[in-house]
C-alpha cells in the first residue's frame, strides 16, 4: 500500500538552486534594510547633508539593494569558466583602482581615510571590489599551482607578492580591516587547495608577527588595541564607540526595547547604521534578534562550504574554491564585525555583510552571492545529467 502511494504521488522536481542559501541571504538583506532605516533616522534628520530627511539612508540603501539584486540577476548568467578566465584581469583592475584611489584629487577622503572614488551620485570603494576579485584570483591561482602546491618558492611566494602589493595599497588608505579580510581569504583558499600543513603553520606565524608589527608601529592602531581591552578606562576617547555599543547590548536584554526605540542611535553610538548596526539590533530586538542574525549568517557560510564540497565531488575544483572562498569572506567579515560590536575584538572599520549601509558593500555582496548560486546551479545541472 505504501509503495503504491509513493508511486502514485507526483514526483517533486529538484530545486534549481539552494533554497536555504537563497532565503537566508534574502532574510539578511531585508532585515538589514529595516534596521538601517531604524538606526539612521536620527542621523538623517540631524544632518544638513541629507536635507534633514528621515528616510534619506533608507532610500539610498533601498536603491543600492535594488541595483545589487539586478546586478546579481545579470551575473548569474555568467558561467564559472568565464570567471576563471577573467580572474587575473579582474585582479589587475582591482589593483589599478586601489592605486587610483590614492591619487590626491581623485580619491575621496572621509574622516582621514582615502578609500572612495566619486562617480557623481555614488562613491565606489575599491577595497570592496578587491575582496571579490581576491576570491576569484586566488582560486584560479591555486588551481594552476596545484601540482607544485608543496613548494614554497613556486606556490606561495608569487601569491605572497601579490598580497603584499594589495596590503601596501590598503594600508596607505588606510583600510586595515579590508587588508585582514583579504589576507584571510587568500590564506584560507590556499589551505583548502592543499598547501602543506607545516608550510601553512609557518606562514600563519609570520603573518601574526607582521600584524603585531603593524600594530606596534602605529600609535593609532595601538590605541585601538588597548582601548578595546578596557573601553571604560577612556569612555569618552578611544573607548567611546565600544562603550556605547556595550550599553546598547545591555539595554536590549533578551527581547529588546522594541523596533525603533533605541536610545544609543540618537547620536551616542557613531556609525550606528554601518559598522555598529549589530549593536542597534541588540538594543531593539535583544539577544534573540542577535541570535537570529548569527544563525542566518551561519547558514549562508555552511551552504557555501557545502556547495564547495559538492563541486569537489564533481571534480570542479575552481568553483569549489570560489564557493568556499566566499564562505570564508562572509564568515570572517561577519565574525570580525560581531566581535567588534561585542568587545571581543579591537574596533575596526568593517561593515556587517549583507546588512550594513553602504553602496559598494551591498552591490559586491549581492554579486558574490550570485556567483555562489551560479556554482550551485551548475553543480545541480551536472548531478542531474544536464549540460551546462
Description:
By secondary structure, the protein is mainly alpha-helical. The chain has helices spanning 2-8, 19-45, 56-75, 80-100, 126-145, 152-172, 176-192, 197-216, 219-229, 240-252, 277-313, 317-342, 359-383; strands at 107-110, 113-118, 123-124. It has a 3-stranded antiparallel β-sheet with strand order 1-2-3, with no helix packed on it. Helix 11 (277-313) runs parallel beside helix 13 (359-383).
**Total E-strand runs:** 3
Backbone shape: globular
Sheet-strand content, in percent, reads under 5%
Following the backbone from N to C, one meets helices and strands in this order, namely HHHHEEEHHHHHHHHH
Strands side by side in the biggest sheet: 1-2-3
Distance between the first and last residues' Cα: 40 Å
Give the oligomer, counting copies of the same chain as homo and different chains as hetero.
single chain
Average residue pLDDT: 88
Structural class: mainly alpha
Which range best describes the helical content: under 10%, 10-25%, 25-40%, 40-55%, 55-70% or over 70%? 55-70%
Cα radius of gyration in angstroms: 22 Å
Low-confidence stretches: 1-12
| Major sheet attributes | 3 strands, antiparallel
The number of distinct helices, counting runs of at least 4 residues, comes to 13
Structure at a glance:
This protein has 388 residues and is mainly alpha-helical. The protein has 13 helices and three strands.
Outline the secondary-structure elements.
Elements: H1 2-8, H2 19-45, H3 56-75, H4 80-100, E1 107-110, E2 113-118, E3 123-124, H5 126-145, H6 152-172, H7 176-192, H8 197-216, H9 219-229, H10 240-252, H11 277-313, H12 317-342, H13 359-383
Antiparallel strand pairs: 1-2, 2-3
